[in-house]
Design goal:
The structure holds 2 protein chains of 2 kinds. By secondary structure, chain A is an all-alpha fold. Chain A has a domain at 97-316: MetI-like (MetI-like fold), CATH 1.10.3720. Helix content of chain A is 78%, strand content 0%. Chain A is built from 13 helices and no strands. Chain A has helices at residues 2-32, 37-44, 51-61, 67-79, 93-128, 133-147, 150-165, 181-207, 210-217, 222-259, 265-274, 278-306, 308-315. In chain A, helix 11 runs antiparallel to helix 12. The longest helix of chain A is centred in the last third of the chain and has 38 residues, at 222-259. Chain A is flat, with a radius of gyration of 24 Å. Chain B has one domain (2-22, 62-266): MetI-like (MetI-like fold), CATH 1.10.3720. Chain B has 12 helices and no strands. The longest helix of chain B is centred in the N-terminal third of the chain and has 37 residues, at 63-99. Chain B is elongated. Chain B starts with a helix and ends with a helix. The chains are: A mainly alpha, B mainly alpha. At the A-B interface, helix 1, helix 6, helix 7, helix 10 and helix 11 of A face helix 5, helix 6, helix 9 and helix 11 of B.
Chain lengths: 320, 296
């Protein structure tokens, strides 16, 4: 456990420069934006643009002074949960984003669920049928699945499933769990295609190990070997593979929220982009960066908890 | 090598798809019966006939012509982004890996930060700040993607520069540039080709996705993702408007994925370009596989 603790501390320490970088990129994006934010703020609020008002607005926005100072000020504000105010509504950005966050979390959870439900059976069957026609069909299906843009898939589902069947909601999330159905499938399908392939590769690797061979030689049934012996070990790397799909999952929510009018942060961000509502975009990218970093940390930690071998390696001071 | 590639039916299929799509879209000015841009409201939503092989869109523009020109734009921009990424990523990776020290440390920190964001989201946000448009989408995608190449190339260089053939070249008095150019680049390129092929599919998807969201190609420019966005209000009454560009995107991406998958078996047996498994030991490059090429 001490090794684990040491690892955790080291990981958290390496996170510090990353988080500083994440916040700095977020901050610097504001400088990239065309136009003077102070002027934008004044015109949005119908306040006359005079040199004095501009100066006041600059101070209020913290866009005054040299870059490092502005960054430090901005960072202090962010640490206190102050992300500025939305240009369009005048509400605090943090409140707007937090209000939309649960919807995105629901969608992401739904997408993950669909991914698991599809990927586990498909990956296992493909591994069992290795080299047969079934496996090739599986490979092709996965490649096709990964090639269909999620926005196209979403529109196909609406046109050919929701419209003919009538009962399935396609706009917003007002009708309870069923509203989550099509958005989750849209989000999870493409991920499942990739994930099933990764799972298949992992299972095959495990199936070649000595202990599986010895289980076979003892005459155990194939189902027992797969279910009780191989699957458990194949599951461990599957946890780390989650890290690869997380980025796609978060990116996918933007598109899916747009198609299904899902009231989450992704839709808020796209609206903000069209409104040139920079503080909201800034808050969004900061949140997504933080979420992504945290997810990867959790995945990394659980990997070490699940697999004693990695912990041993770490204990010897080996870091790759 | 070519023989192995040809034996693999799937990658051959991918190659054929890519060649066909390239040929057809690049020949758009010759093949397209109409100008894809002018609006002709009297001709709107016509079904397929001799004059309009696939009918017309809600603004009376020839769907077939728009599809051809749209693919041209998607492919041209994807290739341009890829060129930029390679031009930044490969040299940075080579230098960081070979020189080590400060340069390397700096690159790794920058890479960590860029990789701390989900790709599509960072690209979306950068485009958001730069303003909508294909050029800005190109910049945004380049900003988020070059890091992956720099990292992979750096990783390969780190293991290559310990090899006997590099040490031998160095002791024979070859300068750093000579070593990089004659010994490192030839070894680094094959896996990069695999990465680039697989990445092209991803770039096509990203450009189409950002255009679908309204951030990439602006009307009236035909681009596959943007065309699907324009077709949204007609997807039940005239599904062809959405089905054709959608299938075109999926086919193109599939082609690149099939080809990249097959190329990987041939050009990257060490699996540098396989999905990275965090910091688990298994993804460490196995050095022995380089000696064949290196001993020339």
């Amino acid at each position: 456990m001490q090794v684990m603790l040491k690892y955790l501390i080291r990981r958290l320490l390496t996170l510090v420069p990353v988080l500083l970088g994440v916040t700095f990129i977020t901050f610097i994006l504001m400088d990239l934006a065309p136009g003077d934010p102070a002027e934008i703020l004044l015109t949005r609020r119908d306040i006359e643009v005079t040199p004095e008002n501009l100066q006041l607005a600059r101070e209020a926005l913290g866009v005054d002074g040299p870059l490092p100072l502005r960054y430090a000020n901005w960072l202090l504000d962010v640490l206190q949960g102050n992300l500025g105010t939305s240009f369009t509504t005048g509400e605090p950005v943090s409140a707007e984003i937090l209000g939309r966050l649960p919807a995105t979390a629901e969608l992401a959870a739904g997408g993950l669920l669909v991914m698991f439900l599809l990927a586990f059976p498909l990956g296992t069957v493909a591994a069992l049928l290795r080299g047969t026609v079934g496996d090739h069909i599986g490979r092709l299906t996965a490649l096709v699945g990964a090639s269909i843009p999620s926005f196209y898939l979403g529109l196909l589902l609406i046109t050919y499933i929701a419209v003919p069947m009538e009962g399935i909601p396609v706009m917003g999330k007002d009708e309870g769990l069923i509203s989550l159905l099509l958005p989750s499938v849209t989000l999870g399908f493409g991920l499942a295609a990739t994930y099933a392939r990764l799972l298949r590769a992992n299972l095959l690797e495990v199936l070649q190990l000595d202990y599986i061979r010895s289980a076979r030689s003892r005459g155990l049934r194939e189902a027992v070997i797969i279910g009780r012996h191989a699957f458990r070990n194949a599951l461990i790397p599957v946890v780390t593979l989650l890290g690869i799909t997380m980025g796609h999952l978060l990116g996918g929510t933007v598109v899916v929220e747009r198609i299904f009018a899902w009231p989450g942060v992704g839709r808020l961000a796209v609206e903000a982009i069209f409104d040139r509502n920079y503080p909201v975009i800034q808050g969004y990218v900061l949140l997504m960066g933080l979420a992504f970093v945290c997810m990867n940390l959790v995945i990394d930690l659980s990997y070490r908890l699940l697999d004693p071998r990695v912990r041993m390696e770490e204990g010897e001071g080996k870091v790759s | 090598m070519t023989g192995r590639l040809l034996r693999d039916h799937l990658s051959l299929t991918g190659l054929v798809i890519i060649i066909l799509i390239f040929a057809v879209t690049m020949a758009a000015p010759v093949l397209a019966p109409h100008d894809p841009l002018p609006v002709e409201l009297s001709e709107r939503l016509r079904s397929a006939d001799d004059q309009y092989p696939l009918g017309t869109d809600p603004l009376g523009r020839c769907l077939y012509s728009r599809l051809l020109y749209g693919g041209r734009i998607t492919l041209q921009y994807s290739l341009s982004v890829l060129a930029i990424i390679l031009l930044i990523g490969i040299p940075t990776g080579l230098l960081a890996g070979y020189l080590g020290g400060m340069v390397d440390g700096l690159l790794m920190r920058v890479a960590d930060v860029v990789l701390a964001f989900p790709n599509l989201i960072l690209a979306l946000v950068v485009t958001g700040f730069l303003g909508p448009g294909l050029i800005n989408v190109m910049i945004a995608l380049a900003v988020v993607s070059w890091v992956q190449y720099a990292r992979v190339v750096r990783g390969m260089v780190l293991s290559l520069k310990q090899k006997e053939f590099v040490l031998a070249a160095r002791s024979a008095g070859t300068g750093p540039l000579g070593i990089i150019w004659h010994h490192l680049v030839p070894n680094v390129l094959p896996p990069v080709v695999v990465m680039a092929t697989l990445n092209l599919g991803g770039l096509v998807l990203s450009i189409a996705t950002l255009s679908f969201l309204g951030l990439g190609a602006q009307p009236p420019v035909p681009e596959w993702g943007a065309m699907i966005n324009e077709a949204r209000n007609y997807m039940v009454s005239t599904p062809m408007l959405m089905l054709l560009p959608g299938t075109a995107i999926a086919l193109t991406v599939l082609g690149f994925n099939l080809l990249g998958d097959g190329l990987r078996d041939v050009l990257d047996p060490q699996g540098f370009t396989r999905p990275r498994q965090q910091s688990a030991g298994s993804s460490k490059p196995s050095p022995r596989l380089f000696s064949r090429r290196g001993s020339q």
